[in-house]
Amino acid sequence: MFQEIRIRLAAINTLILFILLALLGSVLYTFTYHQLYRNIDQMLIGIANRTQTEHYIKLLTEKGAGRAVEHRVISLLWDKDGNLHAQIPQDAFSAADLVNFKTNPSNQQPYTLLIAGHNYRTLSRSIPLEEDLANLQPDLKNVQMIQYITNIDLEAKLVRNLMILLLVMGIAGGGISLLAGFFLANRALIPINVSWNKQQQFVADASHELRTPLAILQSQLELLLRHPEQTIEEESIRIHTVLTEIKRLGRLVADLLFFARSESNQLELEQSRFSLYDLINTTTEQFRPLAEIKGVRLNVFCESDLTFYGDQERIHQLLLIILDNALKFTSENGLIELRCQKSKKAIKLELEDTGIGISEHDLSHIFDRFFRSDKARSRVQGGTGLGLAIAKQIVEAHHGQIWAESILNQGTTIHCVF
Q: DSSP H helical segments within 345-405, as ranges?
């Protein structure tokens, strides 16, 4: 599936990049082409206007001869029948070339001609009726059109070379676009692939976690059905087992719903200002009887005026999770200390225990979903492996950070910074 998506993304990225390169190349070529020819056209129009303003005196008195490529502008004088009367300078074009310069009286805009391997830009202008060239030269009395011509071989070569360069760059750009397309596609698929793998793992783990209590429920209920004559008191152990598994299923479903809402951005925080000191004391008091039964000391050190802006219910859930974990894995005569204080820019919450600790290998995974460092023991104690993952989600939802430090068989410290 991902291979097909990768190819599609690469094709789309390549197409977009190639189109951008083609557009940039087209803009560059069009701008250069029009800029070069615009300057030439302005020169021809300027000469034509100046010649008319000077009443053609300077034009008709020019002397000289030579090839067209040796002169910037050549003038051809035509009569109304399309016959050439003169070219200025003389002998600029051969008779064979002149045949190709037939001018169109109705078209007085600059245009390009290719003659004998040379490129020319030409502009034709009619002579106004009030002008009488016969006063200057009697043999020009029938002249009605002047054609201004300039050689543009250099400009045409520049445009041609630019076109070749852009084509070469387009081919190279196409190859680069293809490589860049695959690179961008691979980069775009990295988070999708990671998310997909996590989702697949999550579904597999959730299925596994749900399968166990469901199997226990089915087996216990089948045993109850085999002995319908027995009283509730006689089957109390099986009924207690069923209730325990139902509670465990309820916790698991609630935890899964929490993650579903969190990942779909539907986890809404009801934020307000509350006393963190009161919340910590209230929560620890709930655990104190359990700690006393287990023979574990529970100490709390918190600033009395400490307040916090956030979701009180979620912070309460965070405290329950980390306290429950600490109490589960701290043996008799152990110690649990909860410390909370405010620094200049943050609130620091630390929970330290003298429990069994976590190995260095497992420490980096304790915030992963369904992770248990001691799977058999955790299942007996009723854990789902989602507690610390939920704690991490809660802390990050409040723009905080959470991490753990631990030494195997010596204890663990959970750090939360908001």
A: 360-363, 375-380, 387-397
Interatomic CA distance for residues 413 and 399, integer angstroms: 20
List phi, psi (to 5°) of 387. -55, -55
Claim to verify: residue 238 and residue 289 sit in the same structural domain:
no
Q: Coil, strand or helix: which one is 126?
A: strand
**Structure-token pair, residue 227:** 């002995």
Averaged in consecutive runs of 10 residues, what is the pLDDT profile of the chain (418 residues)?
73 81 87 87 88 76 53 80 80 79 70 86 81 66 84 88 87 80 76 72 68 76 80 79 79 71 65 91 88 90 88 88 88 90 88 89 81 53 70 88 89 92
User: Residue type at 76?
Assistant: L
Residue 348 belongs to what H/E stretch? strand 347-353
Q: Where are the alpha helices (DSSP H) in 143-152?
A: none
Taking each helix axis from N to C terminus, what angle separates 2-53 and 153-226, rounded to the nearest 10 degrees? 160
CB 97 within 8 A of CB 125: no
Written as six digits, the tokens of 162 are: 């630019």
What tokens were used for 8? Answer: 């599609």
- The set of residues, in sequence order, having a beta carbon less than 8 Å from that of 395 and lying 6+ positions away, is 318, 401, 402, 416, 418
Domain's final residue, options 263, 287, 311: 263
What is the tally of structural domains in the chain? Answer: 3
Which two three-digit tokens encode residue 242? 């069923």
The count of other CB atoms within 10 Å of the CB of residue 69 is 11
Residue 343 lies in a domain: yes
Tell me the CATH number at 412: 3.30.565.10
**Structure token pair of residue 281:** 């004391």
Scanning the structure block, which residue is given the tokens 């894995």? 329
Residues 6+ apart with CB under 8 A from 382: 244, 248
Beta bridge partners of 302: 340
**249 near 210, Cβ under 8 Å?**
yes
Residue 75 and residue 181: Cα distance in Å, rounded? 55
Which of 263, 280, 314 terminates a domain? The answer is 263
Helix axes 236-263 and 387-397, enclosed angle (nearest 10): 30
Listed in sequence order, the residues at least 6 apart from 41 whose beta carbon sits closer than 8 Å to its beta carbon are: 110, 121, 123
Q: Residue 135's domain is classified under what CATH number?
A: 3.30.450
User: Using an 8 Å Cβ cutoff, are 372 and 209 in contact?
Assistant: no
What's the pLDDT at 415? 93
pTM reported for the whole predicted model: 0.50
Q: Provide the pLDDT for residue 416.
A: 92
- Domain extent for 281: 271-417
